[in-house]
Amino acid sequence: xxxxxxxxxxxxxxxxxxxxxxxxxxxxxxxxxxxxxxxxxxxxxxxxxxxxxxxxxx
Length: 58
Description:
Layout: H1 2-12, H2 14-21, H3 26-35, H4 39-57
Helix pairs in contact: 1-4, 2-3
């Protein structure tokens, strides 16, 4: 449950949204270092990115 709450926080976070929307920008590259230590970003990746990878493999 906590993982889903943290993933939702990352989903609505304006800083995270900008980094995801423009992945090749200088700002997004800076954010990649921050995401390694952010529990909300980790929860987002575990919750939503795994689903995307599974859909791509089908």
